[in-house]
Design a protein that fits this description.
Distance between the termini: 52 Å
Strand content: over 45%
Structural class: mainly beta
Number of helices: 6
Largest sheet: 21 strands, antiparallel
Number of strands: 40
Low-confidence stretches: 1-23
C-alpha cells in the first residue's frame, strides 16, 4: 500500500504543476468565433448545440472577442445554432470525432439578407457515419431510466438502452453472448474488471454525463474485453459560472430507501463536480425465494471530479471515487439459520493531463490507481452454513498509465498511444463441509446418503451394512467438519502485467469513412501471450436516402478475468486438487475473430433505425463456475465458442416533448468442450457443443418518455422482456425429483395436484409432471 501511495504522489508531481485537477478525458471540444459580414467579431451572441437523439444540449454566449467554447462534449454529431440581434441565425451540423478541438467559423449575415444554411436535409442529421454499431445515452436519458437492482444503476442503464445486452442476476449482464466481456473507459481511464456489485462497486449514474456503448467493431484503442465497450464521460463543473445541484430521495418496495445529491460549480478555468449517493434495501441481492430471506444490504458512493485549465493549451483533471457495498447473502428455506455476509470496499484515484500541441494535435496522459477489497464472512456458527462454510478476503489493485497523441489533418483523424498496467491480486479463502450428506462416504442399498460421522474410509461401508458412494470425492473428506475434519485454507498472491500499443486512423473520403487500426498486446500473468490485432471498419453514407452501410473485422485478445483468478488457477498440493477438481490449469488469454455488418436508416426527421449482425469465433472462451455449492465463483475457459446474433434499435428525436426508443436482440451462444482452463470439476462434458447460459433467444426493451417544457415535469414508461437463459442445473425429470422441497417449489414443480413443500419433496411422479419456471428437454 505504501508503494501505491508513493506512486500516486509521484504522478501528481509529474502531471500537476500547482493543484489537483482533471483533464477532459475522451471528450471533445467545440470552439469558434462569431463574425459579421465585415469580419468583425460579435459579442454576446447566443450559441446552442444539440443532439436530436440523445437529447444532449449546451448553450453559451460569445465573449468580448466573439469566441465561444464547449468542453467535455461527448463524441457525436450535433446541430449548432448561433443567434444575435440584427442578424440571421447561423446553423451548422458539427461532428465531434476526436478529443482534438473541432473549430467552427460562424459567419452571420444581416437580418433580411439572403442566407445559406449549412445543415443536412431530411433525416441526415440523425445518423452517424461511423463504421461500428453503437448507441449514445446522455444524462437526460440516464436520469429517467428505472433502476431494477439496488446498487447496480449503471448495469441497469446499459441493459435497458443497449440491444443484445441481457440481464443476469445481481447486476450482472451478458453483452452479446459473452459473460462480463465489457471494457469501461471512464474519462480515458481503462477499467476491464467486473463492475457487478458482487465483485466491485459501480460509478453512480448521476456522476455520468454521457456514455457511448459500442457493440460493433472496436477500434484499436480498446482491448482486454471487447464484446461491449462503455466509453463514459463524467459530469464536470468547468464553465459553470453559477453553482448547480440536485437532491433526490426515493422510497420503494422491500424497504428500499435512497438519497442522491450533486453539486457542480466553477468558472471558465476551474470546475468541480461532486455526487454523493446512499441506498439501503431489504432485497439488495436477487433472492432464490420469491420473498426475500436474509437479503438486507446498503451501498454508499462519493464521486468528485476537479478540472483546471491554467492556460489555453493545458487541461488537468482529478477523479476520486470511494464506495462500499455491504450485504447479506440471501438464504433459501433449506438454510434457515445461515448468516453469511459480504462487504466490498472500492477506491479509485485518476489524475491526468492534456496538452494542446497545435490546433490539430492533442497529447493526453491518464494515470490511475484502483482497488477492490472483498470480504466474505461466514456464519458465527459454521454449522449454520450449508452445505459448506466459507470465508474469503480478496484484494484486487490495478494501477497504470495510458497516453495517446491525436492528430487531425484534412481527411485523416489519427490516434496512437500506449498503455502499461499492473494488477496485483491477493486471495485468502477457507472452506469446510457442514452437511454430512453432501459428500457422503456410504449409501444404503437404495442410494440414500448416510451421515455416519465416524466413517471416513469407504472400505468400512460394507462392515456397517452399506455400500460405498461411487461419487465420493476423497479429497473433500479431510475437510468435512461433520467427520472431525479441518478447514481448507488457501492463500496466494500474484501480479498481472500488461502492455499495449496501438495506432488507428479514421479516413473520410466523401461519403466513405474508413477506420484502420493495429493493436499490440502483451499479457504476462499466470500465463503469457503476445498478440498483434488488426482492426478494419468502413461505412458509407448514401445521402439521398439517409442510409449508412457499414462493415468491420477485428482480431482481439481477450484477457482472463481477474476475480478469483489465483483460486481458479492454483495447482499442486497447495492448490485445490484436494477439493475434488479433476485438474487445474492457469487461464490463458483468448483470441477472437469478429465480423460485423449493419446499417443505419433515417426516416425523414422522426425515426432512426439501426441494425447490426455480429459473428464471433473465440479460442479459449471464458465463463464462470461455482465452487462446490457455494456463492463463490471463479473463472474458467472452454476450448472455443461461436457466437452470432442480430441487434436492432429504433429511436426518435424529441417531437413536441415526446421521445421513444426500442431495442431488440437475438443471440446464439454455442460453446465447445472440453474445459481447458481454471478449476475443472466437470470435464469431460457429455456434449462436445452446448448452449451456454449467455444464449438469449429474444430480448426487448421499450422506453416512452414525455416532458414538456424542456425542464418541466416528465413521465416515462419502460417495458422489458427477456426470453430466458439456458440453465444447466436441472437437465431432466430425474434431477428435478432429486431436489429438496424448497428447490422444487422454486422451479414450480408439481405432480398433478401434488405440490412440494419445505421438507416434503416429490420423489416420484408417474403422471402429471410439470415445471412452470423451467423448460426441461
Amino acid at each position: 500500500m505504501k508503494s501505491l501511495l508513493l506512486w500516486v504522489i509521484l504522478s501528481f508531481v509529474c502531471l500537476t504543476p500547482s493543484a489537483f485537477s482533471q483533464s477532459l478525458g475522451n471528450a471533445g471540444t467545440i470552439e469558434g468565433t462569431a463574425t459579421d459580414p465585415s469580419g468583425a467579431v460579435i459579442a454576446g451572441a447566443a450559441v446552442d448545440i444539440k443532439n436530436a437523439i440523445t437529447g444532449y444540449k449546451r448553450n453559451a454566449t460569445t465573449d468580448a472577442n466573439g469566441t465561444f467554447r464547449f468542453t467535455n462534449v461527448p463524441l457525436n454529431s450535433y446541430h449548432l445554432d448561433v443567434t444575435a440581434v440584427g442578424f440571421n441565425p447561423f446553423q451548422q451540423d458539427v461532428a465531434v470525432r476526436s478529443a482534438v478541438t473541432t473549430p467552427v467559423k460562424a459567419a452571420l449575415t444581416l437580418a433580411g439578407s439572403a442566407t445559406e444554411v449549412t445543415v443536412e436535409s431530411g433525416g441526415a442529421d440523425l445518423i452517424e457515419n461511423v463504421p461500428y454499431a453503437h448507441n449514445d445515452v446522455d444524462q437526460a436519458q440516464l436520469s429517467k431510466l428505472p433502476s431494477r437492482s439496488p446498487g447496480s444503476g449503471l448495469s441497469d442503464a446499459i441493459t435497458y438502452s443497449t440491444p443484445g445486452v441481457v440481464a443476469d442476476s445481481n447486476g450482472f449482464f451478458h453483452p452479446l453472448g459473452d459473460h462480463a466481456q465489457t471494457s469501461f473507459s471512464i474519462d480515458g481511464q481503462p477499467v476491464n474488471d467486473q463492475q457487478s456489485k458482487a465483485f466491485s462497486t459501480q460509478l453512480p449514474l448521476d456522476a455520468i454525463q454521457s456514455m457511448e456503448l459500442i457493440t460493433g467493431t472496436p477500434s484499436a484503442e480498446y482491448g482486454d474485453k471487447t464484446s461491449l465497450v462503455v466509453s463514459a464521460i463524467t459530469r464536470s463543473g468547468l464553465g459553470l459560472n453559477k453553482p448547480t445541484g440536485s437532491f433526490q430521495a426515493d422510497y420503494g418496495s422491500f424497504g428500499t430507501v435512497s438519497e442522491e445529491a450533486t453539486l457542480g460549480f466553477g468558472s471558465a478555468r476551474f470546475g468541480n463536480f461532486i455526487a454523493v449517493n446512499a441506498l439501503r434495501s431489504g432485497r439488495f441481492l436477487d433472492t432464490p425465494e420469491f420473498w426475500p430471506n436474509h437479503a438486507i444490504g446498503n451501498n454508499g458512493t462519493i464521486f468528485d471530479r476537479a478540472d483546471l485549465q491554467p492556460t489555453s493549451k493545458d487541461a488537468l483533471h482529478l477523479n476520486i471515487f470511494v464506495a462500499r457495498n455491504w450485504f447479506q447473502i440471501p438464504n433459501t428455506y433449506d438454510q434457515p439459520n445461515q448468516d453469511q455476509r459480504q462487504k466490498v470496499d472500492t477506491f479509485n484515484i485518476a489524475p491526468g493531463y492534456q496538452r494542446t500541441m497545435s490546433p490539430s494535435t492533442l497529447l493526453t496522459v491518464n494515470s490511475f490507481v484502483r482497488q477492490d477489497n472483498v470480504h466474505y464472512y461466514p456464519s458465527r456458527d459454521p454449522f449454520n452454513d450449508t452445505p459448506a462454510t466459507i470465508s474469503q478476503d480478496r484484494r484486487l489493485t490495478n494501477y497504470g498509465l495510458k497516453s495517446d497523441l491525436s492528430h487531425v489533418r484534412g481527411r485523416q483523424n489519427i490516434k496512437f498511444g500506449a498503455q502499461i498496467m499492473q494488477t496485483r491480486l491477493k486471495e485468502s479463502f477457507a472452506t469446510g463441509l457442514t452437511d454430512p450428506t453432501f459428500n457422503a462416504v456410504c449409501l444404503d442399498n437404495t442410494g440414500n446418503a448416510q451421515a455416519l460421522p465416524s466413517v471416513t474410509n469407504p472400505a468400512l461401508c460394507a462392515s456397517r451394512g452399506f455400500v460405498k458412494n461411487p461419487d465420493l470425492s476423497p479429497g473433500l473428506v479431510p475437510y468435512d467438519l461433520t467427520r472431525s475434519g479441518r478447514l481448507f485454507n488457501f492463500n496466494a498472491r500474484g501480479n498481472i502485467n500488461q502492455f499495449a500499443a496501438y495506432i488507428q486512423d479514421a479516413i473520410t473520403l466523401g461519403g466513405l469513412t474508413l477506420n484502420l487500426g493495429l493493436r499490440l498486446d502483451r499479457y504476462n500473468g499466470l500465463s503469457e501471450d503476445t498478440s498483434a490485432q488488426p482492426r478494419i471498419g468502413l461505412s458509407y453514407l448514401f445521402k439521398p436516402t439517409g442510409t449508412v452501410f457499414r462493415g468491420g473485422f477485428s482480431r482481439t485478445m481477450e484477457s482472463p478475468y481477474n476475480e478469483n483468478l489465483l483460486l481458479s488457477s492454483s495447482t499442486g498440493t497447495n492448490g485445490l486438487a484436494t477439493l475434488g477438481a479433476l485438474n487445474q490449469k492457469p487461464l490463458a488469454p483468448g483470441h477472437r475473430n469478429q465480423f460485423n455488418a449493419g446499417l443505419q436508416q433515417a426516416f425523414d426527421k422522426t425515426l432512426l433505425v439501426d441494425v447490426d449482425y455480429f459473428w464471433k469465433f473465440t479460442d479459449n472462451a471464458y465463463d464462470f463456475d461455482v465452487l462446490l455449492n457455494t456463492p463463490v465463483t471463479f473463472p474458467i475457459s472452454w476450448r472455443k465458442s461461436k457466437i452470432d446474433g442480430v441487434s436492432l434499435r429504433v429511436s426518435t428525436p424529441e417531437i413536441h416533448g415526446f421521445q421513444a426508443y426500442s431495442t431488440m436482440g437475438h443471440t446464439r451462444a454455442r460453446f465447445f468442450g472440453p474445459e481447458n482452463g481454471g478449476l475443472i470439476f466437470n470435464s469431460p462434458v457429455r456434449n462436445s457443443v452446448f448452449r451456454i447460459d449467455h444464449d438469449q433467444a429474444f430480448q426487448q426493451t421499450t422506453n416512452l418518455r414525455y416532458q414538456r417544457p424542456h425542464h418541466g415535469p416528465w413521465t416515462a414508461f419502460t417495458w422489458r422482456y427477456d426470453s430466458g437463459v439456458v440453465a444447466g442445473a436441472v437437465t431432466d425429470q430425474e434431477t428435478a425429483l432429486g431436489l429438496t422441497g424448497a428447490e422444487q417449489a422454486a422451479i414450480g414443480l408439481s405432480c398433478g395436484a401434488l405440490k412440494p413443500a419445505v421438507g416434503s419433496p416429490i420423489t416420484a411422479c408417474n403422471s402429471g409432471f410439470e415445471v412452470s419456471r423451467l423448460v426441461i428437454p
